[in-house]
Queue: 2 jobs
Job 1
Amino acid sequence: MTITADISSLPPSSVRPAYTTESPDILIVDDAPANLHLLSRMLMAQGYRVRLAASGEEALAAVQAALPDLILLDVHMPRMDGYQTCERLKGDERTRHVPVIFISALDQTEDKAKAFVVGGVDYVTKPIQIEEVLARLQTHLSLRDLREELNRADAELVGWRTEQARLKDELQAAQAEIKTLCSLLPVCASCQDLRDERSYWRQVQVYVQEHAQALVPYTMCAQCAEDAPGGNGGNGGTVGNGGTVGNGGTSGKSGTAGDGG
């Protein structure tokens, strides 16, 4: 059936929604040249890019060459009708997400139902109303954009969760290493120094600084401040007995405590 419409009733292109990229690419599939001509003029007047196909076979070839943003598909065509064409499109992983709007003179409920069963997103009956076609087309292009945005957000969320899982694994491995380290390095019950893997007694902060490759800020607790020379109280003594602490050095103690060494 040939589409009849008054192109003079087209709204100005300025009312078409603004898209973030170049104008959407619409593939029109119809075996009637007059229909292709009218629909293409209608859409180009609104700023859309248009490609034409006169059969289902041509439509499949056109889609493989370049994915359109949306397909307007006639139902009644020789050899491969619109339903079969849509089934082929939806059966291909590369093309299954392209929205398909059927345009047909068939207005029975079963015809419309079949269009949705095979994967169509909408159904327009002939003779068409130009404003209706434009409104439906713009709606499904907007829905397509929202789906793509949602897919991108989902992908980012998956990436974030993967990174979180990786960091959690690293943290658990570090905690396990710390537990192992604590079980292997005895700590003096009196001065809190630890005996390293070479049996040297070391200050904990020096050992941590060497093995963590990080600087340990030194400060003084309130009790040590009181016990230090010039403090407010305590015995005026100093920590240690004159020994030195350095990389690979010892704490200067002449004996050991608490480990029978």
Job 2
Amino acid sequence: MRISSSQYFNLNVASMSDQQSTLASMYQQISSGKRILTASDDPLGAAQAVQLTLKSGALAQYSTNQTTALSSLQQEDATLSSVSSALQSVQTQIVHAGDGSLTDSDRTAIANTIQGLRDQLFSLANTTDSNGNYIFSGSRAARRRSRTIRHNWAGSFSGPRPGCGLPR
């Protein structure tokens, strides 16, 4: 078979065009700092890059969730320590109130102290996190769980009715 000059010329032009295209692609890779610019450059590598990007995002989310959970647990632990301290103070006041040598004014002072501790416990039960969510409200974090209970020392009670769905 005979090759004409024009065919030989066209073959060389096509080869030079392909080499220029390859060179332009290499320059683009060098300037961007990326080996894969399009999925057609390396389909397997592009698929792996997509998977790695997804895994990286998931790991970042896990890290954020871990930090949030740790912060929440630390706040809950501090609040529960305060609750424990307040309950210990209530117990101490109740034991002190059983002293037969106390006067009525002493017992009234103890009752006022216990009422203050009760108010403190309600405040602790309604502690909010940095987002304004109540930390002891479970899945209804935006809803206040504890309500103030009014009690007079004559024995009557005014608060949530049993069975109405509100905490006691």
